[in-house]
Amino acid sequence: MSISSEHKPLGKQVTSSLHTLSPIVELNVGGEMYTTTLSTLKKHPGSKLAEMFTGQPKLRTDSEGRFFIDRPGTYFKYILEYLRSNQVPTQCIQDVYKEALFYDIEPLIKQLEDSPQIFGELVARKQFLARVPNYSENIELMIRIARAEAVASRQSSVIVCVVRTEEDAARCQDALNSLDMDKKSVVKFGPWKAVPSISDLLDCIQMDVEAKGYKISVQPHVAEKGFRFKSQDYFYKFLFTWW
């Protein structure tokens, strides 16, 4: 029995098996167009990318019938080059790493993690920051305080207390009690048990706040005359510039 027109699939959503497709596949990845082979996309059977093109289709198509993947298209060329020739990218490492994680291409993930950029971030910096209590929460707190103070201002500042040891933490608390400011607006980082110094942590804070799109600078916070502690030993001012 023939299928009447009203029962035929509508639109561009694919419903037939991919086994019937041409071995040449056209892709639309976030607006970037690519042409490759089905065998290239399925090169690593355990990957999410291979699963997209195995069995029943798991992707919609665009108006031209190309399979659509809603990911940044710019970096897919590096993924595709790796699948074609096992060439590990040397550009845009951080971004390609994110895409490799999304597509779950395990061999590429492991090779990228051996690169200096990813190794330094995952093994050195992130392992250090994992030992700094409430680091991520404090970054968000800094941003909230800065935004709250930005009304009708070009700049707003956040005072940060950084202590490396428990002994410094006690001294910092004494210093904090002597400061003429709202203590709730002071963000405290530390203590931690790791090699990196206070200046290393300050660099990390600036790097991570800037990664969120903010323009900031840091300087020691100098307290009023007669202050009985050297405030610059613990306190720093992060200056957010809005325009």
UniProtKB/TrEMBL annotation:
Entries under Gene3D superfamilies matching the protein: Potassium Channel Kv1.1, Chain A
Organism: Formicarius rufipectus
A single BP term in Gene Ontology: protein homooligomerization
CDD domains: BTB_POZ_KCTD14
Annotated signal sequence range: none
Highest taxon, organism lineage: Eukaryota
Pfam families: BTB_2, KCTD_C
Record protein name field: KCD14 protein
Stretches assigned to the BTB domain: 23-120
Gene from which the chain derives: Kctd14
InterPro entries attached to this UniProt entry: BTB/POZ_dom, KCTD7/14_C, SKP1/BTB/POZ_sf, T1-type_BTB
